[in-house]
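Illustration: Major facilitator superfamily (MFS) profile domain-containing protein.
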Amino acid sequence: MGSREIKSPEDMLETPASLEEDGRSRKKLGMFFIESDNRRTAFGRGYTGGTTPVDIHGKPIADLSKTGGWIAALFIFGNEMAERMAYFGLSVNMVAFMFYVMHRPFSSSSNAVNNFLGISQVSSVLGGFLADAYLGRYWTIAIFTTIYLAGLIGITLCASMKIFVPNQDQCDQLSLLLGSCEPAKPWQMLYLYVVLYLTAFGAAGIRPCVSSFGADQFDERSKDYKTLLDRHRLPGGSPLTRVAQVLVAAFKKQHVPFTRSELVGLYELPGRHSAIKGSGKIPHTDDFRCLDKAALQLKEDGGNPSPWRLCTVTQVEEVKILIKLIPIPACTIMLNVILTEFITLSIQQAYTLNTHIGKLKLPVTCMPVFPGLSIFLILCLYYSVFVPVSRRITGHPHGASQLQRVGIGLFISILSVAWGGVFERFRRGYAIKHGYEFSFLTPMPDLSAYWLLIQYCLIGIAEVFSIVGLLEFLYEEAPDAMKSIGSAYAAIAGGLGCFAASIINSIVKSVTRNPENKQRSWLSQNINNAKFDYFYWLLTVLSIINFCFFLYSAHRYKYRTEQTFEAWETKQNILAEDS
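Result:
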């Protein structure tokens, strides 16, 4: 689509004061801005134009043929792979470390790890904010990786030096079962939490930037999508400040009608370029009409209005886009609840099972690593098998749209947690039948832990479809100067899933425990007397409800290219009426 100017307020022969009919004025408002200049799409949707490729110092790149591409992407991939290995290794081992070394109960250990996971993901919005507003993605990743490394060093010292852990003498398995081991001192737990959350803070700056930074290395305008391009992007200013300005300006003008005689039009800078660095202009849409009040230009606003009173159309549309994106990542919170529960609770299951492969005995804490391994293997099959086959069936470049893939993942996550409930019911019945009712730390030699691989593989498949689809969806649909904030939505959903897991655990423990009748909680420390199968089936019901909400939200969502086409069609109709 070429660059062309739509009638600006001063060029209009007909003023808004003459538009008495509300329906017609609503259509006319869409003409009071300049259409975006370099508007392009990736695979038929998503706006990524209006930006200038720069180097690490923020200077424009003269020769694009020698930068970016797969070489740069592989370095980014290597950094992220190392970060993910440390992150998940820490996550799955911390539960066992806090139980066996720090002598904390399984329940509090699981909740501590859930909170660590939640903080590291929810606070990633800070990393996205700094990347978009001030630092850029490269320097944000570099700085927070250093913080992340400092936290990991602190945790390593905690595990290596006796001064940081309680006395381990006379703390055998029986003492652990009875809870009679020497507890950790308050300062020891304080140190552990400080370095743990320092690590979480470091991860918060990496996650929302790395996928977008990797995607920046390729030029989506190329037919083969592999043209070398370093799109270090210039920071586009504070996105949260722009959001606040829209909300404040819309509130100040909430009582101003769209047909007011002093109305000049919807405010936008003249010319081809947006007022937001790193962003192209965004066409006006009719969604969330109350926010359009922020762009209503009145004569009293003067020639140099405050951004807290008058915002551009592009700025208003940025806020609209962020709001419209929320339901989709929100629907993935339940998937993250399931994954979090598998990482922490399945360790208790694995302690009662045989982890031998022939003569090789795997540590129990290796079991939750299998979801990550399955994700890696399934990704290979995904791009080599699923995409080509489904592309022939659907004709879609990716085999299925982003939202379709998210839906497939959510459905498979329901199967994974349902299977978890079925297997746990069998495992608990087997333990009681063979006399292991009170030995929840003793493995049963005839029952293999690798039955857990079924639920791990299913949740891995769910992750591949949902998270990959979600990240692509957020990257393509987010505003140009808010790509990292869009990616942070996925991390926030993951963090809220971790917090939700802790909340659900606490509620279930409180509701299902009755000391007067000596009724144990569904999630009691002795898993052979607990009701983990009931808990998994509860999660299955919640997941089904969540899936229904996703279907409703996905059905209502309109891709930005669809809205742009509708706006263009409306404009053509209005121009035809005027002529």
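Reading the tokens back as a structure: Residues 69-100 form the longest helix (32 residues).
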